[in-house]
Here is the input.
Amino acid sequence: MQKLPVAILGATGLVGQRLVQLLAAHPWFEISALAASDNSVGKQYGDAAKWKLPSEIPDAVRGMIVKPCEPPLDAALVFSALPSDVAGDIEENFANAGYLVSSNASNHRNDPDVPLVIAEVNSDHLDLVRVQRARRKSAGAIVCNANCSTIHLALVLKPLADAFGLTRVAVTTLQALSGAGYPGVAALDILDNVIPFIGGEEKKLESEPLKILGTLHGDHIAPAAIRISAACNRVATWDGHLETASVELAQKSSLDQVRRAMLQFTGEPQALNLPTAPAHPIVVRDEPDRPQPRLDRDVEKGMASVVGRLRACPVLDYKFVLLGHNTIRGAAGGTLLNAELLVAKKFIE
Ligand SMILES: NC(=O)c1ccc[n+]([C@@H]2O[C@H](COP(=O)([O-])OP(=O)(O)OC[C@H]3O[C@@H](n4cnc5c(N)ncnc54)[C@H](OP(=O)(O)O)[C@@H]3O)[C@@H](O)[C@H]2O)c1
Here is the structure.
């Protein structure tokens, strides 16, 4: 199969770098263009990106000249890793110019005909691409990835919603520094500290799962009837968001049934054997002190959500800890899996 050319908008940032890393040896996609802000345009990628990953910058991109974030770019699909203060209009421009945009940014997540997709959870929502294409009168469309904490929460809630129904969820997050982008939070603010506020995050965590776990009705999604209460904290880990959650189920079930529903969960990416799909999207650990960010964030190459401490909750029904890599499954890897799904489901020929 000839590789499809893909471009990355915001290629020099933390999520953009993860995309570069994940795409370097991808069997279906080949990086054909890298784009970023005026500070980087015209420079070689190796000079423009403040590379923060432990692996080297791939040789194939080191000397590529960074382009402006505007069409045309030589690409069949565009990944967006742009900050939300600029992503909205730039992604619109690309979609209206005929490009499929697989986005990490929050701007279009609530647009009625923009699918908000976690590949294992709601791949059927990709049918909204057809609705969007008709509205735009173009082959272009935006497909959004959810917020990094939402992705791991909704992935873990999905088998529970399917098997038992979900009524209420309370979640508290301990979110890593890389979730704030680079340079992110000042060292003097976060060392020896926890910051109990992340702007806009709680609203996203309380609303995005409702669209993701909702039902496609033709040209829109009917949201799931679940009430979620979220509290978000920034902590001094580098990668990996930890979340503690309590859930109330519609249909009472045993602890073992809940555990098995999580363990056995797979979705369309596994059925289609997509290159970036984890074999087990939810990994369940039984030790009393796992998951931990440093030990467990790279399980399944950072593409799984790791659940532990599953136990009865005296207020709701069950409670557990979940952990997920924020820049891989929670961002770059999530948009990559969505792009693979778009190819496998023939939205890109
Ligand atoms: N970090 C995470 O864990 C995470 C998780 C999920 C979603 N997200 C979302 O992913 C997006 C990227 O996040 P990040 O953490 O990678 O941010 P980041 O490290 O701050 O990178 C931002 C990127 O956007 C480019 N950029 C900034 N202003 C621009 C402009 N006016 N025009 C064109 N390009 C511009 C930057 O280019 P220069 O280098 O040239 O300035 C850089 O490449 C955000 O929407 C974020 O909310 C992040």
Observations:
- Residues 148-325 form a domain with the Dihydrodipicolinate Reductase; domain 2 fold (CATH 3.30.360.10).
- The mean pLDDT is 97.
